[in-house]
Design a protein that fits this description.
Blueprint: H1 2-10, H2 13-35, H3 41-48
Length: about 70
């Protein structure tokens, strides 16, 4: 136990912040490589269209005729 307290007392807040920065940077690089990997392109192409999945197709859209009423004012 005494060794653990000796090690923890040597870690300053600057060292902890530096290690946190390294961890976040490694995660950022890993995520960037994962996103821009060419093997995932078909998967992302399908996901790119998900917001439009619940919209009706153009052939099933009901078109309404415009109103043909005219004003009777002179």
């Amino acid at each position: 136990m005494a060794m653990f307290f000796g090690i923890s007392s040597e870690l300053s807040s600057g060292m902890i912040r530096g290690l946190g920065t390294v961890v976040v940077f490694v995660a950022f690089v890993g995520l960037t490589l994962w996103v821009f990997n060419g093997k995932r392109n078909p998967e992302f192409a399908e996901a790119r269209l998900l917001p439009f999945a619940d919209e009706p197709q153009p052939d099933s859209v009901i078109t309404q005729e415009p109103a043909t009423t005219r004003s009777t004012r002179p």
